């Protein structure tokens, strides 16, 4: 995504375009979105509040991450859990800490990324960025993306972009928008939606005057029913102050009687 975003940023500059400024100047939505994608990729950190509504109910997540140092944290509130987080996760470059307060209280389960579960993909900074990188890449490559107009998000002016992303068209696009990011887009955006029976989704993104997104939304209807996910973004470049659990407050997964964790304890 970063490579294609750089190319799009160059195109935007050449045409005198900006992601969100201009006071009525004509803007190319695709260039504006890929320019925003590049600007997001340059941020060392940001926080995401995510709300998903689907056939299973409502799920809320709070994500924070930093690229350097390589840290991420997630708190999840699943359906029926009320105000108590159902899953908490902290990850470093080498270790994932996970706990389910209702099941394990204050104690963390410690998992070495290179340890006894080879091949298992654990969440990290990429996942803690929320859907924003996926949405910017997918909507920026959509043929039908349009600029809706100027709106307000949390009291801040923002430009609203929207479009329908057709999965087949997204993967058929061999132009600059996807050439260098096709594999990442397929793995993180297209494949999960195909699994849920989606053929297309609607995406909205609101970009602030500084060129950084303030809000995003994806909605659609798949074989498992309708789904709606909204994210809000804050604290770009601000140290998220992620606290890594100490070894004494955790149990290594290899020390568990079975050597294999409960699914809830590792993936949320």
From TrEMBL:
Protein's recorded name: Lipoprotein
Q: Which residues form the signal peptide?
A: 1-19
Keyword annotations from UniProtKB, A to Z: Signal
Stretches with biased composition (Basic and acidic residues): 50-70
Whether Protease counts among this entry's keywords is no
* UniProt cross-references to InterPro entries, sorted A to Z: LolA/LolB/LppX (IPR029046)
Per its UniProt entry, which superkingdom is the organism in?
Answer: Bacteria
Q: Where is this region: Disordered?
A: 33-88, 212-268
Q: Does the keyword Signal apply?
A: yes
